[in-house]
């Protein structure tokens, strides 16, 4: 830890130590929590900024959670940039960082299986079996350690946000789940830790994902839901670098597929696509 001494925040590796610190806070101290898997970018920073503004203490966790990866290679290749992350967090006025090991987080086997109904069966739930159970395992474990008043999640992971809201409602966890808007690069690409895995050429092509979603939103007045879905997939699949895994237009409150623009719901178009070997997700709200 000595080399981190110049950083103006506390860094903890063990649950008992961070708990002790949290227990030392004055009664009434509000805690904002931003769980991350590291490889921090401006999207994470916007979540931290929200917490720094709203809460007395901001805690960020960095833990690449093996339980949520259904593909071993994806886990192995996930970007890891701890030293830079810590500097970024210190500059962002984060107060406390929790960087546990796998043994520390999963000291006892966790056989819980979470059922989120339809929310967990569609889109990411269908293409990444077990993913959301893995997310729920780590998020509940982290909440248990940190006991935050508020926890901040980015809307790029739209389905994850819906699942975490349901999880906290079902388990009656005393935490407020705060949504934060997607942060984009200048060309529209949603910020993601995985963007750093793209080659320069792939990176250029990746911008087509958002421009296609944006065009779909403009076209939604002219075409049916079915036609918009086909257009988005066809446009992207024509690009030699891109393969669409799914593009669904769903009701934002229950993630059920939307059949017609006339349905009285907020409609969100959610996409997963591979650019080269890098799997990216994004979404667009058709109503806002
Ligand atoms: O969104 C993420 O980075 C992860 O799914 C989370 C919420 C940190 C859980 O590992």
Overall description:
The protein is of the alpha/beta class. It has 2 domains: 10-180, Rossmann fold (3-Layer(aba) Sandwich); 193-285, Pantoate-beta-alanine ligase, C-terminal domain (Pantoate--beta-alanine Ligase, Chain: A,domain 2), CATH 3.30.1300. It has helices at 15-23, 42-54, 72-77, 82-91, 102-105, 118-121, 124-127, 131-146, 158-170, 200-219, 225-238; strands spanning 10-12, 31-36, 57-62, 96-98, 150-154, 176-180, 242-251, 267-275, 278-285. Helix 2 links the parallel strand 2 and strand 3. The chain is globular, with a radius of gyration of 19 Å. The mean pLDDT is 96. The site of pantoate (PAF) has 10 residues, from strand 2 and helix 8.
List the SSEs and their pairings.
Blueprint: E1 10-12, H1 15-23, E2 31-36, H2 42-54, E3 57-62, H3 72-77, H4 82-91, E4 96-98, H5 102-105, H6 118-121, H7 124-127, H8 131-146, E5 150-154, H9 158-170, E6 176-180, H10 200-219, H11 225-238, E7 242-251, E8 267-275, E9 278-285
Helix pairs in contact: 8-9, 10-11
Bound molecules: pantoate (PAF).
Residues 35-37, 65, 68, 135, 138-139, 157, 160 line the site of pantoate (PAF).
Mean pLDDT: 96
Classify the fold: give the CATH topology of the largest domain.
Rossmann fold
Q: What top-tier CATH class of the largest domain fits best?
A: Alpha Beta
- Rounded to the nearest angstrom, the distance between the terminal CA atoms is 46 Å
Q: Using the 3D structure, state the CATH architecture of the largest domain.
A: 3-Layer(aba) Sandwich
Q: What gyration radius follows from the Cα positions, in whole Å?
A: 19 Å
Order of strands, main sheet, comes to 1-4-3-2-5-6
**SS content category:** alpha/beta
For the biggest sheet, the summary is:
6 strands, parallel
Estimate the helix proportion, in percent. Answer: 25-40%
Number of helices: 11
The secondary-structure element order is EHEHEHHEHHHHEHEHHEEE
Query: Any low-confidence stretches, pLDDT <50, length ≥5?
Result: none
């Amino acid at each position: 830890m000595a080399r981190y001494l110049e950083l103006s925040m506390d860094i903890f590796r063990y649950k008992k130590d961070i708990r002790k610190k949290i227990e030392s806070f004055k009664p009434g101290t509000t805690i904002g929590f931003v769980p991350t898997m590291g490889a921090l970018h401006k999207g994470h920073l916007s979540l931290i900024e929200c917490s720094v503004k709203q809460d007395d203490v901001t805690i960020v966790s960095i833990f690449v959670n093996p339980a949520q990866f259904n593909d071993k290679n994806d886990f192995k290749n996930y970007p890891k940039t701890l030293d830079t992350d810590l500097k970024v967090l210190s500059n962002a006025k984060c107060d406390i960082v929790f960087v546990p090991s796998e043994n520390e987080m999963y000291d006892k086997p966790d056989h819980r299986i979470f059922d989120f109904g339809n929310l967990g069966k569609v889109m990411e739930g269908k293409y990444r079996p077990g993913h959301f159970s893995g997310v729920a395992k780590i998020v509940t474990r982290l909440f248990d350690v940190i006991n935050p008043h508020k926890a901040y999640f980015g809307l790029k992971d739209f389905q994850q946000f819906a699942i975490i809201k349901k999880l906290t409602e079902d388990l009656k966890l005393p935490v407020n789940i705060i949504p934060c808007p997607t942060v984009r690069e200048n060309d529209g690409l949603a910020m993601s830790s995985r963007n750093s895995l793209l080659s320069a050429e792939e990176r250029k092509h990746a911008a087509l994902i958002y421009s296609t979603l944006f065009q779909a939103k403009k076209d939604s007045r002219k075409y049916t839901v079915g036609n918009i879905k086909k257009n988005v997939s066809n446009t992207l699949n024509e690009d030699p670098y891109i393969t669409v895994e799914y593009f669904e237009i769903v009701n934002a409150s229950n993630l059920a597929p939307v059949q017609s623009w006339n349905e009285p719901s907020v409609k969100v178009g959610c996409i997963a696509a591979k650019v080269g070997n890098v799997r990216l997700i994004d979404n667009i709200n058709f109503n806002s």
